[in-house]
């Protein structure tokens, strides 16, 4: 004790001799960070406010992780999300080292009337994981996956990416549902839904959540599972980030072999109608071990259009041949990469080498089967443009996803056979107007064939009416939960469930 004080005092005297302040001294000694100016921020209702330097310093001092402020090292990297068209400036960014830092950050935001943005993988197409003038909790500093193979559980921190989860689980011969691009965040995907290559066998990612730890808007940490805080456990599975920051997930795991059949078959666009027609029939009948996506579109650069199948099959080989036989009517593909592959490698096979190279814009809606009229609309409106990537895409749903009652979790669209998306992507420097006008007019012809939408993708469908309709019979229960865990709507950057009486 005396020795620590003496060493501290001696160090203080030495640093003072070097011209360093007491605050800087504390920073050097304990790894704390000095806030050197007041912070400009926006209130919840978007009015300008100044947070005094001493108040912001209080936040910095409470953290083991980092507080990043505008103009300081690390701030501009931390505020970035996947979509390079999003350019927002949070007033403060906290990179937590653990759940208690998340609690400090949330308490600070509540006390200072700030919107809270939460970033995990940053894959929100519309940039819901950052904000102007509020507090960003950047969970990229909080990534860890641990597998308990005996209990078949993966313990995953709230900032983790899918690739780490797949990698650690499969090393023990286990798997849980994840999306198809490995740099997507667990936080956004698993709280909103979670379609992927094994979802038809094992359910959505959110169906595999066994427990969560959540920091609600008052800064309290809640453990929620089938036994504890059951209502919160219900709402977190489909309610996105509406109820707080998930700091930990426990996912149930399933034994699965490492080698699966996977890859893609690419056909010329003139076979698109035949492919879509076969897909409409046979994807509906596919065994649960078969995940089969279908796309039509045009590459950037003016190349010829394509029609393609992307697949993953994790059952017995004979079942695969039977399920795919009808597609032999299409003849030889232009390119065929379907082979026995490592599941974790397949999960990485569509990763973007430079995820921020292109601006992307997506329209999305669920379908209950693919009708001839929908196929007509898809093909009638599909237009390539050499300045962009153009794709109309069906992500395969059904199977185990549909076994779950629509009221068993907040995710209500159990009826979906497929998620239909139109995806455009163009370089950041290009003029977006022509592309956004095209996707809106194209989607206007496709949307009437859809029912509901995937809330973490179709984030531009804002407003209570659209969100109420989408969550169907679950909506009122979600509002009641919002009233309890975020009554002032600090967590509004999501498919927002507005509390009954927002401030
Ligand atoms: C290239 C690409 C591929 C995709 N592939 C699939 C796919 O195969 N299957 C599929 O189902 N979806 C897919 N998606 C959609 C994806 O699931 C959503 O965009 C999801 O929100 C991304 O999660 P994230 O953590 O990366 O996003 P972020 O942008 O970090 O967050 C998105 C939302 O989730 C909230 N959030 C994030 N982490 C937490 C947390 N720990 N606690 C509480 N709230 C949190 C954020 O506040 C924000 O509202 C894909 C998206 C992209 C861009």
Question: What is the strand and helix layout of this fold?
Answer:
Blueprint lengths: L1 H16 L4 H9 L8 E4 L5 E4 L1 H10 L3 E3 L6 H4 L13 E4 L3 H13 L4 E4 L15 E4 L6 E4 L4 E5 L4 H9 L3 E2 L10 H7 L6 H4 L6 E7 L5 E5 L4 H7 L8 E8 L1 E2 L3 E10 L3 H14 L4 E9 L7 E8 L3 H8 L10 E2 L2 E4 H6 L10 E9 L4 H10 L7 E8 L21 E9 L6 H14 L17 H8 L3 H11 L18
Parallel strand pairs: 4-6, 5-6
Antiparallel strand pairs: 1-2, 3-4, 7-8, 8-12, 9-13, 10-11, 10-12, 14-16, 14-17, 14-18, 15-16, 15-20, 19-21, 20-21
Helix pairs in contact: 10-13
The site of flavin-adenine dinucleotide (FAD) has 36 residues, from strand 5, helix 7 and strand 12.
How would you characterize the overall build of this protein?
With about 500 residues, the chain is an alpha+beta fold. It folds into four domains: about 1-25, no CATH class; about 30-140, Uridine Diphospho-n-acetylenolpyruvylglucosamine Reductase, domain 2 (2-Layer Sandwich), CATH 3.30.43; about 145-255 and about 460-485, Uridine Diphospho-n-acetylenolpyruvylglucosamine Reductase, domain 3 (2-Layer Sandwich), CATH 3.30.465; about 260-450, Vanillyl-alcohol Oxidase, Chain A, domain 3, CATH 3.40.462.20. About 30% of the residues lie in helices and about 25% in strands. The longest helix is centred in the first third of the chain and has 16 residues, at about 1-15. Bound molecules: flavin-adenine dinucleotide. Flavin-adenine dinucleotide (FAD) binds near residues 128, 139, 188 and 457.
């Amino acid at each position: 004790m005396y020795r620590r004080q003496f060493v501290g005092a001696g160090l203080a005297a030495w640093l003072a001799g070097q011209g360093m302040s007491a605050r800087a001294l504390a920073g050097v000694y304990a790894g704390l960070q000095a806030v050197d100016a007041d912070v400009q921020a926006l209130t919840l209702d978007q009015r300008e406010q100044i947070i005094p330097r001493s108040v912001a310093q209080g936040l910095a001092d409470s953290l083991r992780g980092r507080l990043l402020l505008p103009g300081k090292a690390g701030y501009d990297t931390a505020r970035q999300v996947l979509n390079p068209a999003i350019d927002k400036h949070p007033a403060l960014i906290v990179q937590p080292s653990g759940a208690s830092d998340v609690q400090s950050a949330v308490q600070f935001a509540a006390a200072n009337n700030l919107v809270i943005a939460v970033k995990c993988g940053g894959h929100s197409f519309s940039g819901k994981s950052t904000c102007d003038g509020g507090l960003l909790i950047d969970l990229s500093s909080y990534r860890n996956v641990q597998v308990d193979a005996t209990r078949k559980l993966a313990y995953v921190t709230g900032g983790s990416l899918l690739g780490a989860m797949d990698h650690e689980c499969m090393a023990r011969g286990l798997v849980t549902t994840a999306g198809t691009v490995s740099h997507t965040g667990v936080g956004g995907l698993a709280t909103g839904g979670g379609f992927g290559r094994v979802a038809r066998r094992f359910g959505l990612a959110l169906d595999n959540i066994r427990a969560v730890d959540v920091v609600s808007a008052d800064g309290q940490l809640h453990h929620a599972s089938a036994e504890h805080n059951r209502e919160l456990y219900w709402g977190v599975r489909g309610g996105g980030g509406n109820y707080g920051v998930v700091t930990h997930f426990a996912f149930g795991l399933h034994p699965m072999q490492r080698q699966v059949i996977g890859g893609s078959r690419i056909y010329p666009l003139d076979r698109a109608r035949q492919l879509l027609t076969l897909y409409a029939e046979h994807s509906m009948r596919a065994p649960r071990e078969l995940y089969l996506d279908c796309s039509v579109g045009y590459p950037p650069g003016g190349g010829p259009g394509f029609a393609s199948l992307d697949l993953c099959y994790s059952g017995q080989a004979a079942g695969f041949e039977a399920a795919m036989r009808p597609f032999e009517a299409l003849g030889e593909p232009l390119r065929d990469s379907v082979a026995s592959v490592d599941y974790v490698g397949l999960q990485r096979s569509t990763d973007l080498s430079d995820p921020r190279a292109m601006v992307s814009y997506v329209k999305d809606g669920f379908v209950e089967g693919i009708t001839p009229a929908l196929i007509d609309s898809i093909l009638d409106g599909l237009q390539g443009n050499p300045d962009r990537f153009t794709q109309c895409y069906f992500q395969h749903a059904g199977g185990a996803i549909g076994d779950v009652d629509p009221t068993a979790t907040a995710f209500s669209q159990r009826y979906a056979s497929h998620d239909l998306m139109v995806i455009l992507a163009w370089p950041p420097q290009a003029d977006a107007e022509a592309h956004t006008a095209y996707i809106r007019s194209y989607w206007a012809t496709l949307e009437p064939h859809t029912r509901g939408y995937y809330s973490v993708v179709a984030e531009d469908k804002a407003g209570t009416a659209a969100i109420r309709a989408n969550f169907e019979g679950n909506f009122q229960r979600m509002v009641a939960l919002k009233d309890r865990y975020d009554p002032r709507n600090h967590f509004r950057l999501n498919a927002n469930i507005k509390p009954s009486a927002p401030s």
